[in-house]
């Protein structure tokens, strides 16, 4: 696994996320209904905020992935050091 990771054959961030299709459909339906009640300017602001939230979530996931990898390595070092 480490060789594959090193050579770029494993890329967790590019793997398809497994989300519940019903939750995605529900979000899309509610979002469309909500947008109907907004002015064009509010729709743009809502979409901008949604994009920002999605980008922030992606960045958070990256930070958490790295921290989890570091925590796992530290745990292994501690186990092997005993």
Protein architecture, described:
The model has no long low-confidence stretch (mean pLDDT 86). By secondary structure, this protein is mainly alpha-helical. The relative contact order is 0.06. Helices cover 77% and strands 0% of the residues. The protein has three helices and no strands.
Strand content: under 5%
Mean pLDDT: 86
Biggest β-sheet description: none
Structural class comes to mainly alpha
Radius of gyration: 20 Å
Order of helices and strands: HHH
Poorly predicted runs are none
Principal-axis shape: elongated
The level of helicity is over 70%
Report the span from N to C terminus.
Answer: 25 Å
Summarize the structure.
By secondary structure, this protein is an all-alpha fold. Helix content is 77%, strand content 0%.
Walk me through the topology.
Blueprint: H1 2-6, H2 21-36, H3 40-81
Primary descriptors:
mainly alpha, 82 residues, 3 helices, 0% strand
